[in-house]
Specification:
Residues 205-240 are annotated as: Disordered. Residues 7-187 form the Phosphoribulokinase/uridine kinase domain. This is Uridine kinase. It is found in: Cytoplasm. With 240 residues, this protein is of the alpha/beta class. It has one domain: P-loop containing nucleotide triphosphate hydrolases (Rossmann fold), CATH 3.40.50.300. The chain has 7 helices and 9 strands. The protein has helices spanning 18-26, 50-54, 66-77, 118-123, 134-147, 153-172, 189-203; strands at residues 6-12, 33-37, 82-88, 93-101, 106-110, 126-131, 181-184, 211-213, 235-237. The strands form 3 sheets. Strands 2-5-1-6-7 form a 5-stranded parallel β-sheet, with helices on one face. The chain has a two-stranded antiparallel sheet with strand order 3-4. Strand 3 and strand 4 form a beta hairpin. Helix 1 crosses helix 7 (189-203) and helix 5 (134-147) crosses helix 6. The chain is globular. The protein binds adenosine-5'-diphosphate and ligand L45E5XJ5. The site of adenosine-5'-diphosphate has 13 residues, from helix 1 and helix 5.
Length: 240
């Protein structure tokens, strides 16, 4: 059991490549990394029947149980294990089982709105936004939803036009302003290699440098001993 020293958030539109980036940057780090898919924190909708659950807007922030996510992140950051919910995309609901997650040196939170919530953002040391063109993303999504998530083509298109696209424009894309780094085209090999190096360093004992996040005026923001790497203009190294 360890106290996590480095928490990364990876946001971006559906199909942008978030899961792929999260997998690639952590696959050689072994057991020192915990991946937390934001999808696992969709609200429990057991009180609705399947037809009602099919109609829910899953791209609006209100679809997520933010308080539970914040609580789990806080617990992990304090070195305590949590029981993470699991999600079933075919049933549009949480599964009955949970998975025990132990705190590890590095934690990766990944999902469309990973950079949306202020309290969550404050717990992140490095905020990434994966940016991929909308036409590429919808093509990837059609393929994935039909093959892996038991959807039909017409349903995927209807959902995209009615909720996925408008919510992307209203909530997901604007959350990019919270990112320290923007990764073009998902699994961009240069970005992946740089991040992999950083994560491996953190997982192998990490650095002891302490960074302060700057607010819009360039003053140090009151965050609790945030550790991380420098993004464009966002962080200062108080050792320098
Ligand atoms: N840079 C890339 N080039 C080609 N295909 C990619 C790239 N990044 C991701 N993919 C593919 O796109 C699909 C969606 O990627 P995924 O990582 O699941 O996206 P997200 O988690 O953002 O929804 C997957 O089939 C993945 O293999
Ligand atoms: N029951 C659900 C829950 C979520 N979705 C969609 O998943 C997308 C987020 O996952 P990504 O891997 O694509 O980032 C999101 O856009 C939701 O529309 C769903 O279709 N059904």
């Amino acid at each position: 059991m360890s106290i996590p020293s480095f928490v990364i958030g990876i946001a971006g539109g559906t199909g942008a490549g978030k899961t792929t980036v999260a997998r690639l940057v952590t696959e050689n780090v072994g057991e020192s990394v915990t991946r937390i898919p934001l999808d696992n924190y969709y609200e429990d909708l057991s009180h609705l029947d399947i037809e009602e659950r099919e109609e829910v807007n899953y791209d609006h922030p209100s679809a997520f149980e933010w308080e539970l996510l914040r609580e789990h992140l806080r617990e992990l950051l304090e070195g305590r294990a949590v029981d993470m919910p699991q999600y079933d995309f075919e049933l549009h609901n949480r599964k009955d089982e949970t998975v025990r997650v132990e705190p590890t040196d590095v934690i990766v939170l990944e999902g469309i709105l990973a950079l949306y919530d202020e309290a969550v953002n404050d717990m992140l040391d490095l905020r990434l936004y994966v940016e991929t063109d909308a036409d590429v993303r919808i093509l990837r999504r059609i393929q994935r939803d039909v093959i892996d998530r038991g959807r039909d083509l017409e349903g995927v298109i209807d959902q995209y036009l009615s909720t996925v696209k408008p919510m992307h424009e209203q909530f997901i894309e604007p959350s990019k302003k919270h990112a320290d780094l923007i990764i073009p085209e998902g699994a961009n090999s240069v970005a992946v290699e740089l991040l992999e190096e950083k994560i491996q360093a953190e997982a192998n004992g990490g650095e002891t440098r302490t960074w302060e996040r700057l607010d819009a005026e360039g003053d140090a923001k009151d965050v609790n001993d945030v550790k991380g790497v420098a993004g464009p203009g966002g962080l200062t190294d108080d050792e320098n």
